[in-house]
């Protein structure tokens, strides 16, 4: 059976919770595509993926399936590999977040890069949120952790996010996938061993939240 070995880890009864989970994954790039692959291989099928971007040759160092779908919309290309997902090709902006109905989803997985969209998302649905912060510009996947957004270290992006949330007097809390490794460069570089591991860590946390393990 396809998921027999996964069931052994979670237990038969607990595993049924994964089959009934409804997840929303925002962003299917270097982090999100690996998260999607992990969720799907683990037996989750009710997954909605949202992204507006198309594959470019520059994505091929880190994004799942990008080498065979250059020029195609990411969500449509990924649906050809994960046929049961719901694919929505839309740009995630603060206005989009404000208009979208998140109520029916058990968890919202945020793998987007835009800080202002993230802030809108946090303010609207932080109790259901798992957020990825800075994964680029790093080399060491062993530095990846799950932390409260208020307790990350070594991540300038997370620090900026906190400052903006404080300006808005936000005092909620949520978990984020982060790294304590400081960025090695200023340029927009990335390494799949870290970005992919961020996605796998996000998947793991989501499954543990669903099953309460």
Q: Can you offer a commentary on this structure?
A:
- It is a single chain.
- The protein is an alpha/beta fold.
- It has a single domain (4-211), classed as 3-Layer(aba) Sandwich (Rossmann fold), CATH 3.40.50.720.
- The protein is built from eight helices and seven strands; from the N terminus they run ααβαβαβαβαββαβα.
- The protein has helices spanning 4-10, 12-20, 32-41, 74-81, 94-99, 115-125, 156-167, 192-211, and strands spanning 22-26, 46-50, 86-88, 107-110, 129-132, 144-148, 175-179.
- It has a seven-stranded mixed beta sheet with strand order 3-2-1-4-5-7-6, with helices on both faces.
- Helix 4 links the parallel strand 2 and strand 3 (86-88).
- Helix 6 (115-125) crosses helix 7 (156-167).
- The mean pLDDT is 94.
List keywords for this structure.
213 residues; alpha/beta; Rossmann fold; 7 strands; 15% strand
Question: What's the story with the biggest beta sheet?
Answer: 7 strands, mixed
| Count of domain modules | 1
CATH top level assignment = Alpha Beta
Distance between the termini: 23 Å
Q: How large is the radius of gyration?
A: 16 Å
**In which order are the strands of the major sheet placed?**
3-2-1-4-5-7-6
CATH second-level architecture: 3-Layer(aba) Sandwich
CATH homologous superfamily assignment: NAD(P)-binding Rossmann-like Domain
Strand content: 5-15%
Helix content: 25-40%
Number of strands: 7
- Outline type: globular
The secondary-structure element order is: HHEHEHEHEHEEHEH
Spans where pLDDT lies below 50 across 5 or more residues: none
Overall pLDDT: 94
CATH overall fold name: Rossmann fold
- Global structural class: alpha/beta
Count of alpha/pi helices: 8
